[in-house]
Amino acid sequence: MSAGGLFPAASSSVLPVGMDPSGAARGCSNTTKNDQESELDDDLTPSKLGTKEYWDDAYQRELETFKDIGDVGEIWFGEESMGRVIKCLEKENVPTDAAILDIGTGNGVLLVELARCGFTNLTGIDYSAAAVELARNVLEKEDVSNVKVEVVDFLSPAVDLTGFDLCIDKGTFDAISLNPEDAAGAKAHYLKALQGALREGGLFIITSCNWTKDQLLHMFSQGFEFLRELPTPSFQFGGRTGNSVTALVLKRVR
Ligand SMILES: C[S@@+](CC[C@H](N)C(=O)[O-])C[C@H]1O[C@@H](n2cnc3c(N)ncnc32)[C@H](O)[C@@H]1O
């Protein structure tokens, strides 16, 4: 697989806290990034959100709900996160035929939005077969064709994932960083896979709620150059201001 206005009313929350009704370990903490004094490469507390079983179950449920009532389910970081990415593509003058890879596409709603904005060379991958089935169903319902969506584990792809002009990650690196068995190894694999997927000069747009700007820049320092930070909502608490979400644009360099 080398590079070659869906805003449902019954959609999701701004942060993905609703993903885990039990209130058990979640993907995002609610401390502000400015409050954190963690080391640059600190590991997160392992969580079930770092397992394939979790996502298989979650998307199996979402797939059934979609089939029942047409709700696409969780859009991580809310609808505004998609607008932020699309605005960035416009600002960076990304051509509409750019080869775009959505890493861990989930329900595929970002692909629908990108297609609606005229992008024609779209690929979504996810290691959860249920997510891929959901994404295909959503694309079909929205009458979007010519988008490739495949079951692929980004950390050990069984297909050739190279030559992309742009890779987008919305919440997937966060999930991968929560791997309960070997988070450091998973992050290292991710970096290698990303370096392989993006052509030199290509862009990487990452949205994270688990890592600060400094941490992301540290983790993606090899082979990437920082271009800009995208504005994300900030809030005040106890007289301090912070952001719960970080969105960065990086460029693949030698
Ligand atoms: C937090 S969800 C984000 C989904 C989607 N990007 C969004 O913004 O709504 C994380 C996604 O990453 C996928 N994922 C996690 N690890 C993966 C891997 N190694 N390869 C491919 N997909 C993965 C999960 O199945 C899930 O769909």
How does this structure look, described?
The chain has 254 residues and is α/β, with parallel strands linked by helices. The protein has a single domain (44-234, 241-252), classed as Vaccinia Virus protein VP39 (Rossmann fold). 31% of the residues lie in helices and 22% in strands. The chain is built from seven helices and nine strands, in the order ααβαβαββααβαββββ. The protein has helices spanning 52-69, 80-91, 109-116, 129-141, 172-176, 183-197, 213-219; strands at residues 99-103, 121-126, 147-151, 164-170, 198-208, 224-230, 234-237, 240-243, 246-252. The strands form two sheets. It has a seven-stranded mixed beta sheet with strand order 3-2-1-4-5-9-6, with helices on both faces. The chain has a two-stranded antiparallel sheet with strand order 7-8. β7 (234-237) and β8 (240-243) form a beta hairpin. α1 runs parallel beside α4 (129-141). The chain is globular. Mean pLDDT is 86; it is low at 4-26 and 29-38. S-adenosylmethionine is lined by residues 55, 75-76, 104-106, 125-128, 131, 153-155, 170-172, 175-176.
Key terms:
7-stranded mixed β-sheet; 7 helices; Rossmann fold; globular; alpha/beta; binds S-adenosylmethionine; about 250 residues; about 30% helix; two-stranded antiparallel ribbon
Strand composition percent: 15-25%
The name of the CATH architecture is 3-Layer(aba) Sandwich
Strand order of the largest sheet: 3-2-1-4-5-9-6
Summarize the biggest pleated sheet.
7 strands, mixed
Number of DSSP E strands = 9
Q: In terms of structural class, how would the helical and strand content be classed?
A: alpha/beta
- The tally of domains stands at 1
Q: Please give the CATH class.
A: Alpha Beta
Report the C-alpha radius of gyration, rounded. Answer: 17 Å
